[in-house]
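Q: what sequence does this backbone want?
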């Protein structure tokens, strides 16, 4: 008996490659892509029949909050990553507003240790920026397993906050990798908080945290980034008004939008979902949603992130504005966006640009983000014709709810392959939790 040339062959699918969507078999050796083209099935140890499916590079969600350590009643690394993989997401970048906040080398080491053997998908962790670690960030961002630095300019869930220009400049001058920014202007949020308190209902959320709060902060951080000569990535843009600003600053800034800002709109979302639609920055009127779609079409948007921000139903039931901001989203990112593909709002190629190639480009991910020989064999296999209904029951998050409960979609993740192993198929996780830390081109270790 001769040894197989390939450990795994993904046969007969439509591969979404950098050169377009092509019928191609993909051969995998040692967890990496070894060949793309017509490959004989007899050359493989294991064959995954992908007939009728599109083979996407593994979907990367560059903004999730999995809450561990310290907030495990909301989510943990096991449940969060299980939801990711069930939704076709093979890599996640996790945010630092845990308890404690991720501020030191020891905090990062703790997260990496907790993820080992429990994370279902590949992962990396952000360092939080704070006054106390500003000068250390240049060294911290180079640690293996770190995807970069995150700055909260406006306070949201947790205590992380850098709101004044002097500290922001110190942060931006410390290090070289791209810095992820939550851009809402804290002084303005504080000055307007009573709008929320007086209204007592989430319909006021986008009035309290208004368009100007977002525009002000984005304008400030663009100026500071230029002064510091530092690349930034502005997260979850929620207003049409920020897009022209960002378009003028493509040399220093990349742009994220979320599926929920592209899908929901005020006031309908607050009528239907109440505080379950409350997040920061807020979901706004349809005019903004349309502005975000225009920016997707014009290439201003670089990446989609879910901002998976789980809070329990009990917490969300508190009267507004004591109710916390955020909604789960890692598991629904792809199905919701496939429905938009089905509706003709974006092409499958553009979706892949936003969920894989964009993430790799922004953060300098080593060996992920496209279907190419030598890259990690991470794939998300989707059936563009599968009609499904998203339900709370399907959600693996500890919170057990999604703002998209009851939404009908056409297009579904049928399987996820993680470095050559079929890790999810037909809504079921397979084998053991085998997620590994992501590698980055800026921080590859010397050998
Ligand atoms: O709505 C939000 N929730 N926005 C954030 O920036 C943080 C997040 C959370 O962690 O709950």
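A:
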């Amino acid at each position: 008996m001769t040894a197989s040339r390939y450990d795994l062959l993904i046969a007969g699918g439509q591969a979404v490659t950098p050169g377009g969507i092509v019928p191609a078999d993909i051969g995998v050796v040692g967890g990496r892509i070894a060949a793309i083209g017509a490959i004989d099935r007899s050359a493989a140890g294991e064959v995954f029949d992908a007939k009728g499916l599109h083979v996407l590079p593994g979907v990367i969600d560059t903004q999730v909050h999995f809450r561990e350590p310290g907030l495990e009643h909301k989510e943990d690394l096991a449940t969060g990553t299980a939801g990711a993989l069930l939704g076709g997401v093979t890599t996640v970048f996790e945010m630092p507003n845990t308890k404690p906040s991720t501020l030191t080398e020891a905090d990062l080491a703790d997260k990496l240790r907790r993820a080992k053997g429990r994370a279902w998908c590949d992962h990396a962790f952000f360092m939080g920026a704070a006054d106390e670690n500003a000068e250390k960030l240049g060294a911290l961002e180079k640690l293996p397993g770190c995807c970069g630095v995150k700055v909260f300019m406006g306070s949201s869930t947790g205590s992380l906050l850098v709101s004044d220009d002097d500290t922001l400049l110190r942060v931006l001058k410390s290090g070289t990798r791209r810095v992820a920014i939550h851009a809402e202007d804290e002084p303005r949020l504080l000055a307007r908080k009573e709008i929320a308190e007086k209204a007592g209902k989430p319909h006021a959320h986008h009035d309290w945290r208004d368009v100007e709060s977002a525009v002000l902060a984005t304008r400030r951080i663009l100026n500071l980034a230029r002064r510091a000569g530092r690349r930034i990535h502005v997260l979850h843009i929620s207003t049409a008004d920020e897009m022209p600003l960002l378009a003028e600053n493509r040399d220093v800034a990349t742009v994220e939008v979320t599926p929920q800002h592209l899908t929901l709109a005020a006031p309908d979302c607050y009528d239907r979902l109440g505080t379950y639609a409350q997040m920061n920055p807020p979901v706004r009127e349809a005019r903004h949603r349309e502005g975000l779609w225009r920016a997707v079409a014009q290439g201003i948007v670089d990446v989609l992130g879910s901002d998976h921000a789980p809070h329990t139903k009990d917490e969300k039931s508190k009267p507004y504005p004591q109710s916390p901001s955020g909604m789960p989203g890692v598991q629904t990112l792809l199905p919701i966006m496939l429905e938009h593909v089905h509706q003709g709002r974006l092409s499958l190629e553009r979706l892949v640009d936003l969920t894989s190639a964009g993430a790799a480009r922004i953060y300098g991910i080593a060996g992920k983000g496209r279907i190419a020989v030598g890259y990690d064999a991470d794939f998300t296999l989707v059936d563009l014709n599968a009609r499904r209904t998203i339900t709370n029951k399907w959600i693996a998050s500890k919170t057990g709810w999604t703002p998209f409960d009851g939404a009908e979609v056409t297009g579904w993740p049928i399987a996820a392959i993680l470095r050559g192993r079929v890790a999810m198929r037909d809504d079921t996780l397979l084998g053991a939790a085998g997620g590994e830390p992501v590698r980055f081109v800026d921080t590859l270790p010397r050998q």
